[in-house]
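Morning run. Coffee first, then this:
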Amino acid sequence: MGTVPLGNQLAWQGRCFNTTTATVAVDSNEWGSITATITLTASEPASAACSDLYVFSTLENTAWGEVLLHGVHTFAVHNLTENDMDDLQLAGLRVFLFYDGAADLVLDLAATLAIFLNWNGNYDKVAAEADIKFLKDYIGMDLERRDTSIKTVTSDDLQTGDIIHTLCLNGLDELQLWVSGGASGHTCIAMRADNGTLYVCENLEEPTWPTAGVQCNPFDDWVQLMQEKGNAMAVFTPLAPELRARLNIDEMWDTFEQWRGVPFGYANFAATVIDRETGNLPYPLTMNTVVLLAQLINDIDPASLDLFLGQGLNLRLGTSNLTFFDCVAEGERRGHTMGSLWAIPDDDAWLYKIEGRTVRSRVCSAWVAEMLRAGGAFGNVTITAAELAPRDVYELAIYDAAYAPPAACQKADPQLPYCQIMGEWRVPYSALYNSVVLHDHYAETCGTQPASAAKWPEGC
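And here it is:
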C-alpha cells in the first residue's frame, strides 16, 4: 500500500474496507526493547464476510495482522534495531495488503511454487504447463508447438561470435522474462577452435551439466545436454558479417581461459535487472517488496542474501562486510533510496567473493558481452558488460539483418528470421530483435516495464 511516515498518516482503500488509515508510533520498555505500534482504523466495510490481511515491515522486522471488523486495531513490530529506527525516520513503516484472504494466499503460493518444479533438471509436465501459463498470463508470451522431426541446424551452420539464446521451462527463465522482458532466459556464444570443432561457451550453473561456471562444450554434446533437460528451446542469431570480420578470435579464446571455471554471476544479477530508481520491477513488486523478501531469505540463508544483494550494495557504497540491511540503512542516511542505490551502474572491475574466491561476477549475458568486447565486436564503444541482461544482448543491433535461414529452418519455423536449434515449443520472436544501435553506456539507464514493451527512454 505504501509507507507510513513517523508522525504522519497513510490512507487507502482496502479490499474489504473502503476507508483505512494508519499511523505509527515508537516506544521502548524498561529493558530497552523498542516497539513500533501501528494504529489502524478501518471503516465502511464492503462485505460482512471479508477480512483484510496485512504485513507491516520495518527494515529488519515484520508483523502480520488481519482486520475482520471495522473500528480501531493495533499491531506491533517488536525488537527494533538501530537500522530499523533510522529507516522509520527516513523511509517510514512499510504496509502490504494481500488482495486474497489467508486461504487463497496458500493456493496462490502453491501455484507460484509449481512453476519452479523443473529448476533442478528433472522434467515435470505439470510444471512445464504451469510455466507456459505463467508466460501467457503475466508476459503475454504465447508458446506454439513446433515440428521437432525436422533437423534444422548442425555445427556447420554456426561460426565464432554467433549468439545462442535459450529458454527453459524451469521457473527461473520465466522469472527472468517477467522481470526484464525479452525472448530468452539464457545467453551463450559460439566459438570454433583451430581444429574446426564448434563449441558453445557460456556461464551457467545447471544441475544436469558436467560442470558449473564459465565453460565451453562441443556443440553436439551441448545439444544433447539441452535435449536431455526435456524443457529446453534454443535459437541462434548470426553475427553481422562486418563485425565477424574484425573479431580477434585468439583474444576471445585467451579471455575464455581467464574466465574458465569462474562461478556463475549471481552477485551480478540485480545489476542487469535494475537500471533506474523505478521502472524495472513488474507489478506488484516494488523495492519495499524486495525488503520483505530479503527478510525471508535472511532467515533461511543469509549467505545467499549477501551474494545476491549485499555485496553489490557494499560496492556501490564503497563499504565492505555490511549486511544487506546495513547497506540499505547507510544508503538512506546518505540520501539514497534502495532504488537509487541500485541504479548506480556496475563497474566491470568490481570484485566479489564467491565460493571462496575473489572474482569478477557475470551472469550469462554479461559474460557473453565480455567475450564480444574482447574480440573487438564493440569497437571503441564504451559498454559496461556487467549491465547486460539476456534481453539487452538479443536487442542489440549486432546481427546479420540480411541473414536467410536455411530451407530446413524456414520449413520448421517460418515465423523466425533466424534458426531454432531445438525445442518442442517455438521460441517467441520479438520485433525488438537486432534493433538498438550500439552506443556508449548501453543498457545502463533503461526502464523495462512493462516487459512486453520497448525499453525506455528511447536510446538508453
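Residues 183 and 264 are 21 Å apart (CA to CA). Good start to the day.
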